[in-house]
Design goal:
Helix 1 crosses helix 8. The mean pLDDT is 94. The chain folds into 2 domains: 149 residues, Rossmann fold, CATH 3.40.50; 126 residues, Rossmann fold. Strand 9, helix 5 and strand 10 form a beta-alpha-beta unit. The protein is of the alpha/beta class and 290 residues long. Strands 2-1-5-6-7-8 form a 6-stranded parallel β-sheet, sandwiched between helices. Strands 10-9-13-14-15-16 form a 6-stranded parallel β-sheet, with helices on both faces. Strands 3-4 form a two-stranded antiparallel ribbon. The chain is globular. The protein contains 8 helices and 16 strands.
């Protein structure tokens, strides 16, 4: 087997180290210096050999982490023609179509940038919508953290658990989660105002949740608005404990505290974004895809 090198960007250093270990690859760390004007200067610690895997999530500051990922891809291209770019959390994935006239479909711009920088393949974890994959001209692979998240929750021994999607859009995710967990699922109906972003739960009363522990499943949590609304609604239906499972926990503006205050017992997320909730390691599923 030819040599493999994993380059860990600062945004995903821990996950990149775990991935290198799983692949029995050599690991190259990066040194980052940010100047007073906000410019980043990146230096790789040693010379990569063979097939190169660049790992860097693009969570906030999104543009900075994106530029660092692009810079590392371009640097890696000097040493190899085989560059697999692993972006565990891909920022801008929600901007995959023109919702309102005149909007820029930023995801298609990012797909072009990754390919121009020198990536020969891209791997992402739980892309917001599969439609987004169509913007890429190079091979792109979406892997899922759902089986690992479900296994983690299973070990927590919940009381008569029920999987809940906070909206109809996440129904398939909840169904898949429930399948791995070995239980049933439901999806709430919500409405979001495209202009103001305000969320409203449209579902009427639910009898099936009474006394059951619930697992709210989502792909990402940003400010937690949808999760808070769903929790408040479900608590009124006299459910048991509420747990939240998501792949990407952005948790902007004290979202973690706000979510827990609404009645959520625990938030469990993947390590696509490092943080206090990222208890589920996705290096295994990424290694399989590679």
């Amino acid at each position: 087997m030819s040599a493999i090198t994993v380059i860990g960007g600062k945004a995903s250093e821990d996950l990149a180290r775990k991935l290198a270990k799983k692949l029995k690859a050599s690991f190259v760390s990066t040194e980052l210096r940010v100047f007073p004007d906000g410019e980043s200067k990146i230096t790789i610690s040693s010379k990569p050999k063979g097939k190169i895997i660049v790992v860097n999530s693009t969570y906030p500051p999104v543009d900075t982490n994106l530029l660092q990922a692009l810079s590392l891809i371009a640097k890696a291209k000097q040493f190899s023609n085989q560059i697999i770019c692993v972006i565990p959390y891909l920022g801008y994935a929600r901007q995959d179509r023109e919702f309102l006239p005149g909007e820029v479909v930023t995801l298609s711009v990012i797909a072009k940038l990754l390919s121009s920088a020198g990536a020969s393949k891209v791997i992402v974890v739980d892309m917001h919508s599969m439609l987004g994959l169509n913007h890429f001209t190079i091979p792109v692979r979406n892997v899922s953290a759902v089986p690992d998240l479900a296994n983690h929750l299973k070990k927590m021994r919940l009381k008569n658990p029920l999987v809940v999607s906070p909206d109809l859009g996440g129904k398939e995710r909840a169904k898949e989660f429930a399948k791995f967990y070995g239980t049933d699922y439901i999806a709430l109906q919500k409405q979001r105002d495209r202009k103001t972003g305000k969320v409203q739960i449209m579902t009427a009363n639910l009898d099936g949740v009474k006394g059951r522990d619930l697992v709210l499943v989502d792909d990402m949590i940003s400010t937690g608005g949808s999760i808070i609304k769903a929790t408040q609604f479900l608590k009124k239906q006299k459910c048991g404990k509420v747990f939240v499972a998501c792949t990407h926990a952005l948790l902007i503006d004290n979202a973690e505290q706000k979510i827990k205050k609404s009645g959520v017992s625990a938030i469990i997320s993947a390590n696509t974004i490092p943080g206090s909730t990222s208890l589920v390691d996705v290096s295994g599923v990424i290694a399989k895809a590679i």
